Amino acid sequence: xxxxxxxxxxxxxxxxxxxxxxKQLIDAAVFxxxxxxxxxxxxxxxxxxxxxxxxxxxxQNTGNKDSQYEMLKKLELSEEDHxxxxxxxxxxxxxFLSTGFDxxxxxxxxxxxxxxxxxxxxxITNLPYLKKIASFGKPIVMSxxxxxxxxxxxxxxxxxxxxxxxxxxxxxHCNTEYPTPMEDVNLRAMNSIGKxxxxxxxxxxxxxxxxxxIAAVALGASVIEKHFTLDRNEPGPDHRASLEPKELExxxxxxxxxxxxxxxxxxKSPSKSEMKNKSIVRKSIVANTEIKKGEIFTExxxxxxxxxxxxxPMKWDEILGKxxxxxxxxxxxx
Length: 334
Description:
Elements: E1 6-12, H1 19-32, E2 36-41, H2 44-47, H3 56-62, H4 68-73, H5 79-91, E3 95-100, H6 103-111, E4 117-119, H7 127-135, E5 140-143, H8 149-161, E6 169-174, H9 188-197, E7 200-205, H10 211-218, E8 223-227, H11 245-261, H12 272-281, E9 284-287, E10 302-305, H13 316-319
Parallel strand pairs: 1-2, 1-8, 2-3, 4-5, 5-6, 6-7, 7-8
Antiparallel strand pairs: 9-10
């Protein structure tokens, strides 16, 4: 999709239904230096029954007894909200992104001119959804939380079968628990996906902290997605597993540093920055005592010391036993 890692700051529903808070989240993401700010597009009555239970993490984090439907209803963004947020992102020079959770929401986002689409983990087994999102012909990032490899492969086949190029699909390893325990991350699965399916890979993180997405970049992730919030203590389903603005900034900085660190050609050779230190840090064969002309070089009258501007110590065995061709004072380079 692009040479550098695509960093998606997942605002999600952490705006708590407040458009002004959504703009503050955009501001925080811009300051951190992300590529995309992502929200969620849905109508509660199209994605959940009124009797559906909430996940345990949602119960723990929301602090009320609303049903899942009631909780989501309060977190909807209106169509006008979307247009306002897109304009705000344009003004702040950051890309707007939103995950659609139903067919109508996908159509709406497509009509807004969205150029990148995100398949959330919960829709990876939703055949009509997969066909619809593939029909747009836009690049897709697909999360794989709760899925096994067979389900990931099945979803990928649907997307490709609908005409989407594999090059335009990034499959994102993910664990759908908020927060994800470290022992459940299984980051190696990301590379297994890439190796087995031959696709671009990424990682959507729900752990606490920033170290796992940084590690994912080092392992080859081309996309990183991370939830963030203005305040982790706010009520709401996702705040607890989200970064606060300063942490988001630190994550972006670390990822960009890792990008630079792994961007070399892979050939082991001295870098430009270290060449100037070569002669200073390496050593040479020097006189350990005064050595007269004609005297035999021995382990007693020779030593190995800095700087490295003389004969390399790798020539030690060749020098021993030879006759000195000149007079040396102690510490003179041989």
